[in-house]
Amino acid sequence: MSQDLFAGSRLLSKPVTPEDTNVEVLRRFINRKHGLNLKDYSELHEYSVTNYTFWLDLWQFLGILSSVPPAKVLGEGYIKEVPQWFPGARLNYAENMLWRADDGIAITETNETGHVASYSYRELRELVRKIATALRLHGLQPGDRVAAIIANRTTSIAIALATASLGGIFTSTATDMGVKGVLDRYRQVLPKFIFSETESIYAGKTFNLIPKVSEVVQDLSSKGLGHAILLPGIKSGQEVSQEVVNSIPLSKTLSAFLASDDGRPLTFEQLPFDHPLYILYSSGTTGPPKCIVHSGGGVLIQTKKELIAHLDIGIHDTYFQFTTTAWMMWPYMLAGLACGARMIVYEGSPFYPDVKTYLKFIDEQNVNVFGTSPRFISEVQGRGVHPRRDIGNFEALRRITTTGAVLSIPQYGWMKTAFNDRAVICAGSGGTDICGAFVSSVPVLPVYAGEMQGKTLGVAVGIFDEEGKDISETGVAGELVCTRPHPSVPIRFWGDDARGTKFLNAYYDTYPGIWRHGDFMAMNPRTKGYMILGRSDGVLNPSGVRFGSGEIYSVLERPVFSARIDDTICVGQRRPQDKDERVLLFVKMRAGHKLDPAFEQSIRAAIRSALSRRHVPAYIFEVEELPYTVNGKKIEIAVKKIVSGMRVVASATVANPESLESYYKYQDIEKFAQAAKKGNDRDAKL
Ligand SMILES: CC(=O)CC(=O)SCCNC(=O)CCNC(=O)[C@H](O)C(C)(C)COP(=O)(O)OP(=O)(O)OC[C@H]1O[C@@H](n2cnc3c(N)ncnc32)[C@H](O)[C@@H]1OP(=O)(O)O
After folding, report:
1. How many angstroms is it from 71 CA to the middle of ligand 1?
2. Cα distance from N-terminal residue to C-terminal residue, the chain
3. Which homologous superfamily does the CATH classification assign to the domain defined by 539-677?
4. What is the DSSP-derived secondary structure letter of residue 544?
5. How far is the CA of 323 from the centre of ligand 1 (A)?
6. Pairing of strands 478-482, 227-230
7. Largest distance between two CA atoms of the chain
8. 3-state SS assignment for residue 654
9. What span, in angstroms and rounded, lies between the C-alpha atoms of 579 and 561?
10. Strand-by-strand arrangement of the 105-111 sheet
11. Which residues, including other chains, have CB under 8 Å from residue 155's CB and lie 6 or more apart?
12. Rounded to 5 degrees, what are φ and ψ at 553?
């Protein structure tokens, strides 16, 4: 008898009054339009994944702006997994984000220094117009890449929208990404323009980014980069000095860049639905980060659907999603503009100067929908802060969403009473790969603590066992799959071949024709709610921030390390008693070499500077053996399962099954913590 994963689930809140919800209005709209009688969400969802016409219904319901409306939903794509959506239609993503042009507030930006500034839709459009004009006059053509190393602030949003208005492709990294991480991405996509911060702020510290930007621009200048635009200091608000401009090739200040403005109006290039809009990155266990190309139409219809139908956001709402510019939650958040809502845009740590200041801001700004993470919630709990008791009554808060990691049953319970008891608590899960969610909030369904409410509309989510059998109704965990295409399946990987070989290998190699996402998931047969149990591949997820072990390996392949290291394996550890995942790095040294404290410290320092602080493993251990398959591939999953508390029976494909035995002792990580902590302390002093 298998364990009942949902034994602890309990009803947390009843559905919001259905009549008041957007998803209910959508159900009635579809019934009227097609003379149907879809009675509830379950029937609406079933319709949405069995009739591609659903996406045309949605187009009309969401009021997608276009110069040529779609005549049909699907055409033939370059591979059957990626059909052509809405052939013949012409539209622009940015035009759909900026349909409001009035004095209503579009963005309230803030950061940990206490800076607060609001921009109306009219002002945002004007900023977009100026940047778009400058980009056009400096030679941006549709399809050119505009890269950015930027903070989460209004100017960054305007750069993305200006790029999109011209048919350029926008791609960004957050300011904490190291030179190697940035170049591993941008050397692949070869931008023509780069916008960059020259300083960043985080947790009360100010970081000088000039050396990094200089190195990145220097490198890309021989690969087609034409212009580097330096943004005003996020702390000082001042343009950078001429001296800095002189020290960075191809660079100019933002105001110098915008000086070419000739006052021409903002126009929107009318593009096919699947014209590329964003390149997002996802790193796996091997090779450089994958460059995931998302279409303007796909991101628009998917993210607008999620905010309107699943988060129930409307024109009168204030929406605050905590995110950096590197996560897919950034383009997701931008859909707040398409809803005509006011967005709160925050840069920095939520814990500086202290979490009470951050929470107070949410209360004072009357945030209606707040998107955060389980890690944030556990930090607030851990600091002994109770928002309603210590801050205010959060009267405006209607919905709190979490993503990135698993929201535990006690966290649901705590959140329900910690803000205001009317606020609906919902967890969701999706991915960079689809720039959207598979499972999310469904306002017309009850919330069960420990469960995500339901599948998102139009996304054919299933749970498969190893043989490809659908086990959704069994309550047993399996692979999260998506059994048919939807518009935000990426159009391709940048740099892939014409048959999409890398793309197909990444998602379709396990179950032909069916998307395998790489998450373990289970459905509660009683409630139809979902639970994600973690990654089914080697992707790491500490604090809800995903990255691939491949990025760590690539740093350790440098000659300075490979001369002493034979091989390494990097896995996430999350035992049943752990609140979060920690990253463990196991190092096998070459004969005659030891992992001494100085060497360990140099590994940490190299990872931190090449990638970011978030990438630095919690613990590094020297081991005698790493497990390999008979084909010589490192077996991360088995090590991950073992250190996370499971018993693993080695399959016949493991070349050295006895090596696995030595990893069981790390289930008791506390025993090793003391010794490893010394390494961390040394690291902190650097
Ligand atoms: C829909 C989907 O399903 C798709 C997705 O997953 S989208 C992604 C969703 N993920 C999330 O929302 C992530 C949630 N987590 C967080 O936001 C953060 O962990 C947190 C705000 C809760 C806590 O942040 P934190 O206290 O800074 O800790 P943490 O995130 O562990 O940071 C690790 C280190 O990086 C540093 N760091 C983080 N951001 C930095 C920055 N911008 N600049 C400099 N340093 C930075 C931190 O200071 C910390 O350094 P130390 O180890 O030296 O202390």
Report:
1. 44
2. 52
3. ANL, C-terminal domain (3.30.300.30)
4. G
5. 9
6. unpaired
7. 77
8. strand
9. 32
10. 116-120, 105-111, 342-347, 318-321, 369-372, 399-402, 424-427
11. 127, 231, 232, 254
12. -60, -40
Residue whose C-alpha is closest to residue 570's, from 528, 613, 626: 626
Tokens of 8: 């602890």
- Cα 201 to averaged position of ligand 1 atoms, centre (Å): 13
Residue 233: pLDDT above 90? yes
SS3 79: strand
Helix ranges, 261-392 (H): 296-305, 329-338, 355-364, 374-382, 387-390
Structure confidence at residue 14 as a pLDDT band (50, 70, 90): confident
634-655 pLDDT, tens per residue?
Answer: 899 999 999 999 998 887 778 8
Q: Just give the CATH number of 2-92+275-535.
A: 3.40.50.12780
d(CA 602, CA 599): 5
d(CA 349, ligand 1 centre) in Å: 8
Tokens in use for 277?
């809009």
Residue 612 CA: nearest ligand 1 atom is 35
For a ligand 1 pocket test, name from 283, 324, 349, 407 the mutation site with the most ligand atoms within 8 angstroms of its C-beta: 349
pLDDT surpasses 80 at 676 = no
**Token output for 58:** 């949605």
Q: Omega of the bond prior to 353 within 30 degrees of 0, cis?
A: yes
Closest residue by CA, ligand 1 atom 4 = 431
- Between CA 502 and CA 121, with CA 193 as vertex, the angle to 5 degrees is 100
The answer to whether residues 246 and 256 touch, using CB atoms and an 8 Å cutoff, is no
Same fold, 2-92+275-535 and 112-269: yes
Q: Please name the residue whose Cα sits nearest to atom 50 of ligand 1.
A: 613
Cβ contacts of 418 within 8 Å, gap of 6 or more: 380, 386, 387, 388
Residue tagged 């043989």 (tokens): 467
Buried b (16+ CB within 10 A) or exposed e, 344-374: bbbbbbbbbeebeebbebbbebebbbbbbbb
**Can you say whether residue 497 is alpha, beta or left, with left for phi > 0 and alpha for psi between -120 and 50 degrees?**
beta
Residue 115: per-residue pLDDT? 96
Closest among 636, 642, 637, 634 to 666, alpha carbons compared: 642
User: Could you tell me if 660 and 642 are in contact, meaning their C-beta atoms sit under 8 angstroms apart?
Assistant: yes
Q: In the block, which residue shows the tokens 């943004």?
A: 231
Can you give the residue ranges of every domain in the chain? 2-92+275-535, 112-269, 539-677
Residues with C-beta less than 6 Å from any ligand 1 atom: 174-176, 200, 202-203, 327-329, 349-351, 373, 375-376, 379, 403-404, 429-431, 437, 543-546, 613-614
Kindly give the distance from the C-alpha atom of residue 346 to the centroid of ligand 1, in angstroms, as a whole number.
13
Q: How far is the CA of 180 from the centre of ligand 1 (A)?
A: 19
State in Å: Cα 544 to ligand 1 middle: 8
Q: Which two tokens stand for residue 219?
A: 């490198």
ipTM: 0.96
pLDDT of 686 above 50: no
The CATH number that domain 112-269 falls under is 3.40.50.980
Residue type, 405: A
- What pLDDT score was predicted for residue 536? 86
Contact 332, 285 (CB under 8 A): no
Residue nearest ligand 1's atom 5 by CA: 404
Q: Whose CA is nearest to atom 33 of ligand 1?
A: 614
Q: pTM score, two decimals?
A: 0.93
Q: Which pair of structure tokens corresponds to residue 360?
A: 């107070």
Strands (E), 15-153: 74-79, 82-85, 105-111, 116-120, 145-149
